[in-house]
Amino acid sequence: VVKADGYGLGLAETATALSQSGCSVFFVAQTNEALALRALLPEAIIYVLNGLPEGAAADFTAHGLRPCLISMAQIAQWQAHCQATKAHPACLFIDSGFNRLGLGETDIADLAGSPGLFEGWELALIASHLACADTPEHPMNAAQLERFRHALTQLPAAPTSLANSGGIMLGAAYHFDMVRPG
Ligand SMILES: *Cc1c(COP(=O)(O)O)cnc(C)c1O
Question: What is the C-alpha separation between 59 and 142, in angstroms, rounded?
Fold first, then answer.
């Protein structure tokens, strides 16, 4: 995760060093950061955490950017764009906490009941974010792990990601397929 100018260390410096060390998947918060990163790393997989802005799908696919879809409207927008062009990859971002950006329990139930919403685009990742991972003893960590696992049982099979830096330290149960250290 190289958002906020690589946490103030410089996007170019951090992303280049990470890429040279073998990192191939990057996360940024906003579209403008993703475009700057794309100019540096033509081959990298780049996810935009803040979601898909209205009307931005064509710009995203033109630059090979993957949105983290955080609402039913964004899923519909991505699906419509893909059905008009081709199947592009995106991430489903789940709110496993209690007030974070992302798809909530009602949305997940709606998705589970509407498999057609997954047609025409590539579900490349299912992710969520731990709110309190910097406090290992916080009960929220286990609660979010449980909610994330429960959401996964309702969704199509796809690679999964939950842990930020603090989450990595919580142990293997939190690691899933990919971690997102910042
Ligand atoms: C910022 C962020 C990260 C990285 O968080 P750190 O605590 O800096 O490791 C991971 N995932 C998401 C969704 C983020 O917003």
Answer: 38
